[in-house]
Structure prediction request, 618 residues.
Amino acid sequence: MATNGGIIGKLNKASFGKCTQTYITASGPTSPALAATQPGTGIIQTLILAGGAGGGGDGGGGGGAGGLRNIEINASGGVALGAAVVGAGGAGSGAPARGVSGTDSSIVICGTTYTSTGGGGGGSDSTPVSIGADGGSGGGGNNPGPSPSTTAGGSGNTPPVDPPQGNDGGDSVRNDPSGKQGGGGGGSTCAGANSSISPFVAGNGGAGTTISGCFPCAPVTAVGGGGGGGSNSTPAGGTAGPGGGGAGAATGGVAGTGTVNTGGGGGGGPGTCGPAGRNGGTAGSGVVLLKELNKASGVWSMQSQFQNQEAGTWPRFLLSPFTGDYLMAAGGGGGATATAGGGGGAGGLAYSYCNSCAAGLAFTAGQTYAVVVGGGGVGGFPTGAGTNSTLAHAGGTKTIYGGARGGHSHSDGPSGLLTGGSGGGGQGGCNPPAAWTGGAGNTPTIPVGEGGPQGNAGGDGANSGPFATTLLNAAGGGGGRGGAGGAGSSPGTSGAGGVGIPNSITGAAVNYSGGGGGGAAQTPAVGGGSPCGTGGTGENPSSPSAEAGTVNTGGGGGGSSNTPPGGTGKAGGSGIVIIRSPSASCVSVTPGCNTVTTLGPGEKVAKFITNGNYIVAE
Prediction:
């Protein structure tokens, strides 16, 4: 008798985890994001990548990549996950020692520990350590002689798991007493290449695996590349395996290192003419990635469907309503002109894309939704704050607040005139010493669950003492989405704009909402723009070159000095509104300068650089 409501067929396990993703890049206590699974989670896509191995020395073999397991694990909703261990990359070595093998990575899910094995070290120029070590992927071999002979690379997928976690390292083939080349380290997708005897060519590292499709917001896009083999007799070592492997050293060169959080193997070391030690390269550390799946294909029991429908966790595949991810930046504040004008605060920034703490917004078919893109505040004196960005949706209207203007008066900070999405930097001033404060950010408050906090505080201006020393004044930088603005310091060093942050909602990483740098009264130590490049740099009289915030990023404008010859504080950058909707959605935008593009997976990205409408078809 059928146990699935009278339907004969395979009974599948339901999972409604909202595709929540968690990235673990270092070992330590379980983070709050790992405290418990989503209520409807039944399956977790789990990528466990171990640390890669170091390359061997003296024409050494490339290090093997850390073992890679990308598996679906049955789980339960609302259940705490166990501790995760992220494996370290192994150090490169010289003869008489192999490259150090990588460390295992693991995670505990529902009481079971799942482990990937560290990569195997590359062989060095001494028997018996010339043979590549076994591991998740094997290390490349190194042949110390005699000639002709072959030295084997290490075995991958050791210990064996299904599907395999890696591949073998390449062999080192030698037929000339004066020449040797290391084999390439194995990668997660391909084995390391053997070295060649004619012509002399070191082995390339095995290719890794692209993971951006499964984990679109992960800190790395490809992992598990093997290290290239080193060379004792050629002008080039083996190439790095795509996915974070390090390149092998040419004779006289330096071995490449594996990339952090890719498990990439280190490159093999150089030969006789290389640096002292002739060491191989250090490998990259591993990573653990989790995605709680939405998965409801196949045949389902009526009971399972009814229970999840009743709980509100069964996926809706209708075009209406659909949930779209968003990114909203308001206009950045203008930089001030004063003895030392404060940098403009970045426009507030809130987003749900690549943010497991914030849900998207609902949109209904047959409706038109108004979009307002905030403008950047004017720079100079008087200067202006950025204006708000708003987005109408099925549940109401979402508002993100403009960045505060930079300070140009001692009363600005205490009077609350420098508060906004991110706060404006305080003017650099004389007495009184407590009056030159920057403004508060995230004002009004946007909570984490709604895509916030939207920004940070502006930096305080520096007090130089009596009026006779005003030329030493230095302003604070405007706050940014990723951090507070830098404070000015006496004598005369103004603060940098607060850091912005990147987001890849459009399919490529773009920086948003960096604060503007503060101006200085005389010295050349002006405040730099935000490290993410959207807020403008401040200026001083000898170099009047304040910069405006970048348009359509919400960057704050750079502050200036009015000390002769002086300059002018610059405008904040305008904001932007972006909506990323499912592939089945049918949307359009007005006016024509706003755009809709389709990404590889079919998702639609609507980008508003000016006010317009988001139109959802019937």
